[in-house]
Design a protein that fits this description.
The protein is an alpha/beta fold and 416 residues long. It has 17 helices and 15 strands. This is Adenosylhomocysteinase. It is found in: Cytoplasm. Its cofactor is NAD(+). Keywords: Cytoplasm, Hydrolase, NAD, One-carbon metabolism.
Length: 416
């Protein structure tokens, strides 16, 4: 078994610095450490983590190790891995299989190497670990007792597997927890997407027309921040309820083909493929900027872009220019991958503190369930008591107190 697959162990000091910074801004994980470290609830438990490998994820891994887990860590996107952070984890005794800029073959080899540690529990982001277990590494399935999924795309994949009776173990849909999608998807994606776009382009947002495809929780956050930055915002949706909500939130709503003629900047955040294709690209303005905030690099059809281009050049780091036959130029950010991570540092530390607290507490819930015979294979919601605990810890960390119901009020609310 290979011990590690990283770029350069000598990068560890820079990674340590990043981890030290986020550790001071993740108070919920610090409270979980303080509460559970002595009891070592993960002692002897093997856990595989496949999440965007940057400093916040590293602190999640270090917290799990502090609670006794035996870890193997990889990334969930070839361009979001930070090599200095990977080196810092290896230096601290955690096996890591990931490096920035991995080819597709290298990326899946890293996933496979992580799974060779025969994990009992999985923290997945996008569903690639779970998919690999059920397709090419089925011999490792008997070792897995359950896991958690971080993001919308991964939960969609899990539900499809469960409906087809293919999912072999219980998975908790952390993405669907209130303390995840209400904050991580909305405020995390909303801020970090614009962080990535602005640091990459160094262009003003105010006065531009921004087209946001998808008005789920991530799209809501991206649109809200665009409005706050002074942009005119157009929403494209396929769900009539979400489209109506966008309209009543004050945005212009129209089909993508109409919006294609108007946008200066296009942000796709749907989780679906081919949101923008050659038909749309043919209508876009010269200089239009394309940024993906969905999990996989399939929302902008890159094959169509390449076929339409007479030349493809690097306009700037993380900006690819597609020169079209009619003289127009379209700019794709971060190779069409997650712009907030491939061209930025991802969500703010305080936001990931919420999500990663849910991950740890959900794994503890799975371990507790084992004592009662375990959960059947399937997709499960995060228990409400965990959601409320994480929210309460976040309020405490911010110095906020709230009211509590009296016993008489509880009786009133429970009566008819």
């Amino acid at each position: 078994m290979v011990a590690n697959q990283i770029r350069d162990l000598n990068l560890a000091p820079a990674g340590d610095q990043k981890i030290e910074w986020v550790s001071k801004h993740m108070p919920i994980l610090n409270r979980i450490r303080a509460k559970y470290a002595a009891g070592q609830p993960f002692r002897g438990r093997r856990v595989a983590v496949s999440v965007h490998l940057e400093a916040k994820t590293a602190y999640l891994a270090l917290t799990l190790k502090e609670l006794g887990a035996e870890l193997a860590v990889t990334g969930s996107n070839p361009l979001s891995t930070q090599d200095d952070v990977a080196a810092a984890l290896v230096r601290r005794g955690i096996p890591v299989f990931a490096w920035h800029g991995a080819t597709n073959e290298e990326y899946f080899a890293h996933l496979a190497a992580t799974l060779q540690h025969k994990p009992e529990y999985i923290i997945d982001d996008g569903g690639d670990l779970v998919n690999l277990l059920h397709t090419h590494l089925r011999e490792l399935l008997p070792f897995v007792k359950g896991g958690c999924e971080e993001t919308t795309t991964g939960v969609h994949r899990l539900r499809a597997m469960a409906e087809q009776k293919q999912l072999a173990f219980p998975m908790i849909a952390v993405n669907d927890a209130l303390c995840k999608h209400l904050f991580d998807n909305r405020y995390g994606t909303g801020q970090s997407t614009w962080d990535g776009i602005m640091r990459t382009t160094n262009l003003v947002v105010a006065g531009k027309t921004v087209v946001v495809a998808g008005y789920g929780w991530c799209g809501r956050g991206v649109a809200l921040r665009a409005k706050g930055l002074g942009a005119r915002v157009i929403i494209c949706e396929v769900d009539p309820v979400r489209a109506l909500e966008a309209l009543m939130d004050g945005y212009t709503v129209m089909p993508a083909l109409e919006a294609a003629r108007l946008g200066d900047l296009f942000i796709a955040v749907t989780g679906c493929k081919d949101v923008f294709t050659g038909t749309h690209f043919a209508l876009m303005k010269d200089g239009a900027i394309l940024a993906n905030a969905g999990h996989f690099d399939v929302e902008f059809n890159k094959e169509d872009l390449a076929q339409m281009a007479t030349a493809v050049t690097a306009a700037r780091p993380n900006i690819t220019a597609y020169h079209l036959k009619d003289g127009r130029c379209l700019y794709l950010l971060a190779e069409g991958r997650l712009v907030n991570l491939a061209a930025g540092d991802g969500h703010p530390a305080e936001i990931m503190d919420l999500s990663f607290a849910l991950q740890i507490l959900s794994l503890l819930h799975l371990i507790d369930a084992e004592k009662e015979g375990g959960l059947a294979a399937g997709v499960y919601q995060v228990p409400q008591k965990i959601d409320h605990l994480v929210a309460q810890l976040a309020l405490e960390a911010n110095g906020v107190k709230i009211d509590t119901l009296t016993e008489d009020q509880k009786r009133y609310l429970n009566s008819w």
